[in-house]
């Protein structure tokens, strides 16, 4: 599963700003996700921003008092219309048709941060090809792909209960009833997979219905009490078994510890929502292999390995400081 975070999107915006071959006077974002990409890009280019409707109406978004650049469409020669990603090109083509109805006195170019293998047909500029299956941090919980995802509840859709609330009794039922959602997905979730006990199904279903969270399946642990659930301690194993049985493409889990174990057991990708990190089974295998190699080398010759490790750390530290010094005082 290919994943891009907002942090990576910002890095891509910086890269695109450096690589654009022409002077861009204005960035226009395609709602909704394209507005995030456009905002990051215009900050890196130090130019104003608008959306597609604003472009058609000759309206710029307001900027801070410190900005001293283009302040009207009379100063604009080239506009970059940008989206976060282009897959089939349907949205970009629709935008081009909309803009073609206007006789603009400036040039328009089109760009995207990420494209599919065929996306280059629809844009003039892009940063990276991100193949399917793919998910982005900024639209993961609002993407039609949720239909084929497993999603944890506590720690994702709402916060975890406190120790006091998690009493397997009155306080816990009150938590299940009154806790506020952290996110309300706008797409149907394939499988909600939770370690909540089956006896709390009514409260859980009522809460989901009250907040408009749509799902196809709700899978809960069929155990009589919290004490037995904690004694068994097989939360990640249970989730991994459900994940494998569903044929889902991704599991969105709140806990990094559980996410790692689910990925290891299922040999399928898991996204840790709390850490905002995508875990792929191949990556975990490489980490384990490398860790085993280092432990073996340490066991065979601890003195030599320790000396080499120390030299590596020192050299990396010197290299990092050198780069920081150059970036601050260099040139």
Automatic annotation (TrEMBL):
The entry's keywords: Transferase
Organism domain of life: Archaea
Family annotation (CDD domains): PRTases_typeI
Annotated ranges, domain Phosphoribosyltransferase: 6-139
Molecular functions (GO terms): transferase activity
Protein name per the record: Phosphoribosyl transferase family protein
